[in-house]
Amino acid sequence: AANSGFAFANISVALTWSTNPHTLTPNAPSTVTSNFITAQVSLSFSTNPAGRSYSVNGTTSTTPQTLSFAVGEAITLGATSPQGDASTRFVFQNWTISGVPTSTTLAAPSSATSYVANFQTEHFLTTGVAPAGGGTITPASGFFAAGSAVPVTAVANSGFTFANFSGALTGSKNPQTLTLNAPSTVTANFNSEQVS
What we know:
Number of strands: 19
Distance between the termini: 99 Å
Radius of gyration: 31 Å
Low-confidence stretches: none
Order of helices and strands: EEEEEEEEEEEEEEEEEEE
Mean pLDDT: 91
Structural class: mainly beta
Largest sheet: 9 strands, mixed
Strand content: over 45%
């Protein structure tokens, strides 16, 4: 029987066979040797969302792949973060097996396993005011998780009144909430108070 991490290969004597067990009827003194090989396992790697960059033992890929490892072999998983551009980026969260977080340094298991590198998608929200000095808008420009509800508030400076939002938000209701499903721009517009 093979020990953990090994698989039966064959038995060698005057003849060689790979069936196990096997019955030998010796007609003369004989030596029997059981040969074993290191057991191999197929492991799958991918990302969520698809197309993100990840590495397995230092080799980078952006596509799903299945690789063969010796059972017990050391594996190091990696992922560059953040990825993307100035509008949408992907921030690494964790590696998981069936949705359960796992370590990035591990020993190859004895059965086929799928590993997923998970990233959070974030979009850039650009906020501004018009005219300059007319007031303030919060939040400041920055990245927010895709699909998140971002409260946007405008506050007029002295001598100005809030008029409306333009861009991804419209209307004079203040504050408003923006559901960020893509890179967006929101401007808070102010009117100068008239002195009579």
